[in-house]
Amino acid sequence: MRHLAHFAASRSPAVLRTQTTDRVAENSAQLKPILRRDRSILPYDAWKVIAKSLRISDRELQIIQGIFDDRKEFAIADELKISMHTVHTHLERLYRKLGVSSRVALVLYILSEYLSLLPPTL
Question: What is the CATH number of domain 33-117?
Fold first, then answer.
């Protein structure tokens, strides 16, 4: 537990850069995009299509991307600046929504959905 407190204390304060003036606003949270372009398993645009097809919220999609990156609940929570309990709750709701019961089943379901959305090839 002390390691976690030390980790939190050693992190630099988050800042927000404005697009118009590129100035740093003090005491503000850093905004992260909903979809990150550095996801390697699926193309960037595929995430948006999958989310729309499965009616997945932006936050649920961020949780799924964390699962695809093989991150644990703690790491996902830290990245999204939410509690581990919230991540766990999102995962349980996703499991119910998609009819799966594990992380592996979730990944397979998402990949299956992605493949079903691809145009047929001959």
Answer: 1.10.10.10
